[in-house]
Amino acid sequence: MKRLDNHPHHSLSRSFSGTYRLTGRLAVFDDAKTPFLKLRFSDCEGDHVAFLNLDKMLAPERIGHLDLVTATGVKSFSGQFVVQACRRADQQEVAALKTLQSLPRLYCPVPEAFDQLVSTAQSLQSEHLRECLTRVLEREDRLESFLNAPGSVSYHHAYPGGLLQHSLDVANNAVAMLRLNEPTMSRLMQETCFVAGLLHDIGKTYTYDSKGKPNAAWKLCSHDALTLEACAYGLAYLDQHAPDIAIMLRHVWTCASPGARYGQPAAMTLARYVRDADGQSAMVDNQARAFSRTGGWGFSRLGQNLFWRPEPPALQPQ
Fold first, then answer.
1. DSSP letters along 171-227, please?
2. What does each C-alpha distance from 126 to 100, 143, 172, 179 come to in angstroms?
3. Which of 74, 93, 119, 223 is the most exposed place for a label (fewest CB within 10 A)?
4. Is 0.85 topped by the overall pTM?
5. Tens digits of per-residue pLDDT, 114-141?
6. Which domains are seen in the chain, by residue range?
C-alpha cells in the first residue's frame, strides 16, 4: 500500500502514539515469509505506515476503514515503523481530539486549503461551533466526499477538492464583508458567519461518491435541501446548547444561496454576506477559467456566461 502523504513532523519521528483514522490495511509477507499487516494511520497532519507482526501480535479485529484507533509504533533498524499496540479508540480518547484532528489530510487534493480549514476550525473560540463542525465533517460517511468533491460538475471549482476551496472562499469572504460593514459585530457572530459559509454547500457531499464522481442524487435531489440533512447532527447539538445559533444557521442556509429553492427572505445581514460571497466565489473562478485560454482581456465565454475585461492602457514612453 503506497504512502500517499508524509508530513515533515511525522517523517522525523522515531515513534508515534495517538488516535488516528485507519485508512489502510493490507496483508504482506517479508522475505522470510513472515506475515505482517501493513497499516496506515492518518490524521490532519499526515499519516504513519507501520507493520504489525502477526506472529507476535493478534490482528485488530472489528476495526474497519476510517474507524478511529489508538495506536503506538516505533521505528525499527530498517527505518520502518513497527506497531506496538493497536485497538479501537475509546470515547474519552475521541473526545480529547482537537477539532477536525481526525480528518485524513492525505485524502484532500488541495492540501493548502485543508490546512487552512483545520487551523481556522481549531481557532474558533466557540466550543459549540467547534463541536458542530466535528459532528458534521468528521462523520465517516461525509469526510471523504467533502475533501474530494468538486464545487460543481462543469461550472465553478469543477475539480477534485473544489468544494472545499469554494467553501473556504465563501466563509472567509463573508466574514470579511461582515467585519468591513459591521466592525462592532461580536466574535461569536463572526464565527457563526464563518461556519455558515463553510457549510453552505455541504449538501453536495450527498451528490458525489467518495471519489468526487456524481451519483444518482446529483440528478434527483437539490443540494440546498440536502445541506440541512448533512448538518442534522450538528444542528441537533446546537439546539440543545446554543439554540439561537442553530436558528441562525438554518436561516442562512434556507435563504442565502442564489439558486436556493427556498423563498424565505433574508432577515439578517449574515444571510446576505454568505449569499454574496457565494456568487462572488463562483464568478471569480469562472472568470479565471474563461480567460485562461485567451490573452487575458476583451470578451470571453464560459458556457452561457459572457465575461469582459478592458484592455490595460499601453505604457507611455518616458
1. HHHHHHHHHHH-TT--HHHHHHHHHHHHTTTGGGGGSB-TTS-B-HHHHHS-HHHHH
2. 14, 22, 17, 18
3. 119
4. yes
5. 999 999 999 999 999 999 999 999 998 8
6. 8-93 (2.40.50.140), 99-291 (1.10.3210)
